[in-house]
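quick one before i forget lol
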Amino acid sequence: MTSFADLGVPAAVARSLHARRIEEPFPIQVDAIPPALKGRDVCGKAPTGSGKTIAFGIPMVTRCPAAAPGQPTGLVLVPTRELAEQVASELALLAAPIGLQVDRFYGGVSIERQISALRRGVDIAVACPGRLRDLIDRGEVRLDAAELVVVDEADRMADMGFLPEVRAILDDTPTDRQTLLFSATLDGDVDVLIKHYQRNPARVEVRQSRHDQAADAVHYFWNVSHDRKFDDVADIVKRLSSAVVFCRTRHGADRVAEQLAKRGVTSVALHGDKSQNQRERALARFRNGSVRALVATDVAARGIHIDGVAGVVQFDLPADHKDYTHRAGRTARAGATGVVITFITPEKHKIAAQLQRDLKMPVAADEVTLSRLGHEIPIADGRPAGVAGPGDQTPAGRTGSKRPKRPTAAPVTPSSPYNAARRKRR
């Protein structure tokens, strides 16, 4: 069994991982950490939930020196506030044994607090491009000391139109910086980033193996009528220990949450009209099990990273196969199983068929058959979604991980993205 120490991880960091019961590296960590620790650029292709944060976090806390105020030596660019929070939280745990300071920077909250943090000194900054540009323009942060830069969820950056800002930010960093890029897909605009901002990167990719297929989500496409959609989604969520329900619009998310409540299902809505405090409270309630469902727009497709989510229900069809992939990635994480159920209303059959072809899935849809789920639905072993158990931080098959039986009905299983002392300050 490969250990983090075998990968060259500093003893203090390895001990902190051990204290959190993170014993054996995930495949993306095995492949990415050694070259990154040696200073090489890394281009990583891996699905969400595959352990990318630790894969780039360990090299970052190991290689980044302490920073002067307003001049972070480590920078992570992310597309959403929720992802910034979660990446910063993980990096803070990794950085604690080294003595480095980590903070997050995004819109929707007081910029004054963030300015104060920068003036005190932040070694590693986790930032959304828009707020970081505001801080640069105000003269509160300079990137000329950045030694290691990570672009996380690069394809989502492209999808959200952030690439011009990302490129401008990278242009503000030293040309000899180390650049790590992670993404679920590496085509199109992401390939432009690789060609322009990386130097002979080590390419790593997590591929499905036959052993891993048991940990994938089971995918269902179900025909539903408009007058039954709310009843069907309520019945499905009642059979799950926890679920993320995706809607196309903010109004739609609020309406689904309201209709679930009328049918006795506790839920909370998450979308762009919510303040940052409201969004954080919604996620906290879902994590601690106070509500059974999180009803979200695609603002959450990349932003929430919660282990133990039993299923995803796509109340509205995603815009394209990439959005499907990212929505589906909310379940079947960290070695667990899960289900993804996509609703198809009569007028959406052609769109759904094209989506299945893009996903390299069979073009098919069944009538809603809740008996398929029955008692074989993946469950979070009695714990609320997101509450860590002994196996949650280790790949499936190791001590404490849970693999419920798969549904007996023939599911759609795609073959693509599913299937050390403190250094002195300068």
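fyi The domain at 214-376 is CATH 3.40.50.300 (Rossmann fold).
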